[in-house]
Amino acid sequence: MHAVKRTVAALSLALPLLIGCSGLASADTVVSSGSTTSVGPGGVSTTSGTTVYASTGAGFTVMETTNTTVVGITGVQTSSSTNLAIFQ
User: Fold this and answer.
1) How confident is the model at residue 23 (pLDDT cuts 50, 70, 90)?
2) Which of 69-78's residues contact partners 24+ apart within 8 Å by CB, and which partners?
3) Which CB contacts under 8 angstroms, 24+ apart, belong to 54-57?
4) Least CB-packed of 44, 45, 66, 73 within 10 Å?
């Protein structure tokens, strides 16, 4: 269980950095990321998210990514979502 906690903690720190670096090539790009980790009697949960806002000339693109991992009594559950909006 201790090794799983360390893995979850490492992923929660590393994942936003990896996702955030993809938007640095654009000149008008803003990257925002964050993460939370909670520990309680039922287990450990971590959530990380990244938002990338990029200007595309007359419009803009927004991409949001969220990853959640829960380690508890019933095992490990993971979920992720990506939302992409393009405005012209």
Assistant:
1) very low
2) 69/8, 69/11, 69/12, 69/45, 70/43, 70/44, 70/45, 71/1, 71/4, 71/5, 71/8, 71/43, 71/44, 71/45, 72/42, 72/43, 72/44, 72/45, 73/42, 73/43, 76/4
3) 54/23, 54/26, 54/28, 54/29, 54/30, 55/26, 55/27, 55/28, 55/29, 56/86, 56/88
4) 73
Strand pairing report for 59-72 and 43-56:
antiparallel
Model pTM score = 0.55
More confident residue, 76 or 5: 76
